[in-house]
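Hi team,

As requested, here is the filled-out complex form for the iron/sulfur cluster run. I kept the field names the same as last time so the parser does not choke. Let me know if anything looks off before we queue the next batch.

— J.
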Amino acid sequence: MNKAAIEELVKRGQELWHAPKEELFRFTGEPEADKLLNDLTDRPHAFVLACIMDRQIKAEKAWLIPQRISERLGGFSIQKLSVLSQEDVYRVMKEPEPLHRFVNKMAEYFYSAVQRIMNNYAGDASRIWTEKPSSAELVYRFLQFDGVGVKIATMAANILARHFKIPLADYYSIDISPDVHVRRVFSRLGLIPAHATPEQVIYKARALYPDYPGIMDFTCWEIGRNWCHTLSPACDSCYMKELCPTANKSR
Ligand code: SF4
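And here is what came back:
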């Protein structure tokens, strides 16, 4: 096992974890859309609804959906959303052009999420994460939304913990998201085989750092995005090069 590489991944994850909270976390690159998604005080439902939309299309497009709906409706308050019928939501998402590949299904999930926020959290989605819940409880609360599976629920919990610095009682249940960057970096560092399943990636991260398996998520994303490209990885610039069997093999 590449112990030094694991320690480096965790160390970098901890540095990112302790970094000061960014003023505006960049979800989409569109200032107004990012402002809405970062507004956990007055419009926390925007973040929750964007997480729910984040499936089967590019993440950047999914995270733009609250802003596009806000533009079409002239606002994004929970009161405004809560009076819409499922049919209304469908129409808003469908015209003038569809906001999602599966508008029908996503309109159903969107409508159901708004109703859940109204009925279970008195219209204030931030109650999902206030009062320092355990990570398992937080993930479970996201799983209670229609259309949300483990992947979205842990991603949401990880963003809340890491970027928004929402205090939690523990971090055990925040898993790594086995996306393409994580899988490629883990594999090239010799931590998993090249064709490991998503479950293998998740359990490997749990085995490597049980206190907070998701802490390596952003580290891998950063390495994957900046240096560990699918074709022609830029090993000479990557800070993992001395610890990486793939880089050493190609020398
Ligand atoms: S050294 Fe190269 S192969 Fe290894 S993680 Fe970095 S970019 Fe990827």
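Two things worth flagging: The mean pLDDT is 94. The CA atoms of residues 151 and 177 lie 7 Å apart.

Thanks,
J.
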